[in-house]
Amino acid sequence: MSLAQLHYTSAAGFTAVSPDVPRELLDEAEEVLAAFPAPAFSLTQLSDGSRLLSRTTTDPESGAAHTHAVHLPAGERLPGGALPVTAWDSPRWAPVAPAPGSTPEPLDLLTPAAGFFDREGLAAFAAACGERLAGVLADVRALCEDPGAQPVVLVAQDPADIARWVAVVGAALPREHAHGLTFTTYAERPEHALQQIIGTSPDVVFPTAGFRVHRCDSGPSVTGAGSVPSVTDGGSAVSGTGAGPDSSDTGAGPARGGDDAWAAVAAQVWRAGRPELFKRAAAQPSLSNGEFEEGPLAATALSAGVPLDSRGRTAAARWAEQHADGLSASDWPALVGALCAPVPGPRPDGELDALARLAERVDGKVPTEILAPLAALFAAEDDNPTAVPELARQLAHELLADPERARSAAVREALDRHTDLHAQLLFHLDGLAPDNPFSVVRLLHTADLVRGVPDGLPHLRMCAAYPLPGASRQGSDEDRESTLHTVLRAAGVSPMVEPLVLRTGFRLVWPENLLPTPQEARWILGETGSDAHRTAGTYPELIRAALEGPADDPDVTPLAADLIRCFPHEIDARQLGALRMLEFAESLAEGRAGAGPVATALTLRSAAHPVEPAVLRRTFGLVARDLLAEQRPVGELSALARSGDADLIGAYGAAARTAPLLDRLRTAPSYAADCFVAWTSHVGASGVWDETRGALLEEVLRPALQHMTSREIASLLEHLDRSGGTHAADFRAWHRPGGTLGRLARRFGRR
Question: Which residue range or ranges hold the GTPase-associated protein 1 middle domain (predicted)?
Answer without folding.
Answer: 123-203
